[in-house]
Amino acid sequence: MSIEKLKDNYPVDIRWIHFPLHPDTPAQGISLAELFAGRDIGKVKQRLKGLMADAGLPYGDRTHTYNSRLAQELGKWADTQTTGEAIHDALYKAYFVDGVNIGDIDELVKVAQSIGLDSARARDVIQNREFEKQVDDDWQRSRDTGVTGVPTFYAKDLVVVGCQPYETLEKFVQHLIAINEKKETGSNEQ
Predict the structure, then answer these.
(1) 109-149 confidence digits (pLDDT tens)
(2) Per the database record, which ranges form the DSBA-like thioredoxin domain (predicted)?
(3) I need a surface site. Which of 82, 147, 179, 180 has the fewest CB within 10 A?
């Protein structure tokens, strides 16, 4: 995957900031046909599948979209755990490949357990909404920086939006490194 390859090749620090994508989706989810009413769902799915393939990501034959709020709160907690970063890939796979309802607490606990996180603690975190404020803060930061879709790669007021191939993200990182090098040397050349 592009992000992992970037981390292997460059000194990047990835921080997950959550975004309210379809926040009004009910807990049971809605069909993609309903979400994209009036559009050719086959074309929408093919476009998404192509974008994911370009980025080296698997993509299943999803039929529904689910509310991701609780998954985001679980992810925020997992980021505080030693092995928690793996939750993001596990949630991606559960949602985009396996079609799991990531708005369902039991399903989220299974995802957490699959990467070695304590299932009882994960359940408590979700049920008690322990990371609700942190995700609220992320949503506000997303609004403040003008994020309109996921994923969005943001640094130094520069943005790359959408699922992108590795080469695009690599150019973004190289540009950021060049900016830092100019800043460190005091160069004002453009």
Answers:
(1) 999 999 999 999 999 999 999 999 999 999 999 888 888 87
(2) 3-173
(3) 82
| Other residues' Cβ atoms within 10 Å of the Cβ of residue 54 | 15
What is the DSSP code string of 114-156? Answer: HTT--HHHHHHHHHTTTTHHHHHHHHHHHHHTT--SSSEEEET
Domain at 15-145, CATH homologous superfamily: Glutaredoxin (3.40.30.10)
Domain ranges of the chain: 1-14+147-190, 15-145
Residue type, 48: L
Nearest to 148, CA basis, from 17, 21, 49, 16 = 21
Give the Cα separation of 152 and 78 in Å (integer).
20
pLDDT in tens, 66-86: 999 999 999 999 999 998 889
Given a contact cutoff of 8 angstroms between Cβ atoms, the answer to whether 73 and 129 are in contact is yes
The pTM of the full predicted model, rounded to 2 decimals, is 0.84
Provide the CA 181 distance to its chain's centre, in angstroms.
Answer: 29
85: buried, middle or exposed (CB in 10 Å: 19+, 13-18, 0-12)? middle
Is residue 158 within 8 Å of 145, Cβ to Cβ? no
What is the distance of C-alpha 99 from the center of its chain?
16
